[in-house]
Amino acid sequence: MVDYINILLSDFDFKTWQSDKRLQFQFKISDQLDSFGNVVQTSSEVAHYRGLDFIRTLSGKCFVKGSIHRFFNAGSNNGNRFSYLDFMEALEELQDFGVIPDKAILKSFEFGLNLPVKEKHLSAKSFYNSIIYRIGEVEKCMSDDGNNLIGKQFITEDTTVKSYDKKQQAALQCSHEIIRYELRFRRMRLLKRFGIVTLYDLTDKDKLIQLFEKRLLKSVNETILLDWKALPNTNKLPEYQKKKFLNWRNPNWWREKSMTTKARNRNKISFENLIKNKARYDIKEILKNKLIGEFSSVIASQNFSPNGSTQKNMGTNAGRIVSGKHVGETNMLKRKYCLVCGKDITHLKKDAKYCNDNRKCRDKAYNLKVSKQRKARRTQKQKEILKIINELGTDLMLTRTTNPGRRKIAGIPGRKTSIIVTTNGKQKLYHGAAARFFLKEFEKKKKLNQSNMQDETNST
């Protein structure tokens, strides 16, 4: 949830850190940009401990920077779930270092979630590669230590939106992939309306829910996504949509400076309607549902007081709604998703498997079920035919009722291939695909028998 914090400690005595044997301070010189864009060398005392840097500048200011998630994991990776209760526990541990939450001023932090990707037709790469455009933001690629592409980030003056492969980035050993979606606030002026100023403000669930709804989810809504696997064939699109689709799939087209905001939004709505109606699945909707489901899971039922003690929820946060989905404090809802398109169907009846507002999902699932049943029956029939041919061989008597080699003629109805098989004085009818399979295998058997007889004759 909350990660990579940068906090300034007010009313802090550096002797608290000096007397702590866990912190070994060293002088460090680094380059920074001043307000005029000039590079300025700064020196400071830095101690690294379990994923966090404890910093004291020459002016006497004290900062804590780094991953509070790693700190909670004893310096290990931050690829697992970091719940609200885990965050509380990490803040309690920080108080051992003199970090009081309501006196820790936020300079920047990350707000995001690790989302497991278990669908066979999707991967972490599917999500970040699907991002075509974000309004008014500079796109940059992300890479791991080996310079392998792992994701994308979109940068503005105040924020950075990141979507990347967490499993690859953290070198995790797990059976499924993990996509990390996060929003980094590099400046705090955007969060004044939420009343988020100190580290303690991030312990307020009401503020976290607002942050999730009005910042993280909103960032997804503002994004234009297209997964090519979801719309592999555009031949069935009407001609007017084909021409528009050539533009919609092109990231550079969305960046045209001559395009007004109104025109861009109008095209965005049309494009997303096309994806919803024509694509096999909507990856944007899947991403939103994953975020909502994961955020519901990380919210827990304890509050935090500035002095570090935890207290039971008094009921003020008991029934919050996130974009129409319950983020319950006491009764967690187990989320369900459509087996075809991935849409959230938690609100439907218990035995629901598919969304009821999109008939094509149920039809697609039904057709797939029927196809499997037909395939099973066909396989069983073929086994029966092979058994008959192998046991009786040339003793079979076949009567063809139609010509299987007859080519179809335009305008003339086709006729099914049918045969009557006589075995042990009994007749059995096969028609259609079963009859064609029977004839094919029977001819193979005859040729094999003739070949064997020829070989025996030659050998004698």
Describe the structure.
By secondary structure, the chain is α+β, with helices and mostly antiparallel strands. The protein has 2 domains: 2-231 and 279-357, no CATH class; 362-459, no CATH class. 34% of the residues lie in helices and 26% in strands. It has 12 helices and 19 strands. It has helices at 15-18, 68-72, 84-94, 124-129, 166-169, 205-221, 239-248, 251-254, 261-278, 283-298, 359-392, 433-459; strands at residues 2-9, 26-33, 39-49, 52-57, 62-66, 104-117, 131-134, 138-143, 149-155, 159-165, 177-185, 223-225, 302-304, 310-312, 319-322, 325-328, 397-400, 418-423, 426-431. The strands form 5 sheets. The protein has a 10-stranded antiparallel β-sheet. Strands 17-18-19 form a 3-stranded antiparallel β-sheet, with helices on one face. It starts with a strand and ends with a helix.
Q: Main beta sheet: strand number and arrangement?
A: 10 strands, antiparallel
Please list the strands of the largest sheet in the order they lie side by side: 2-3-4-5-1-6-11-10-9-8
Uncertain stretches: 308-333
| Mean of all residue-level pLDDT scores | 81
Helical run tally: 12
Structural class: alpha+beta
Which percent range describes the beta-strand content?
A: 25-35%
Number of strands: 19
Taken together, the total number of domains comes to: 2
Shape: elongated
Rg from alpha-carbon coordinates: 32 Å
- Rounded to the nearest angstrom, the distance between the terminal CA atoms is 84 Å
Q: What share of the residues lie within helices?
A: 25-40%
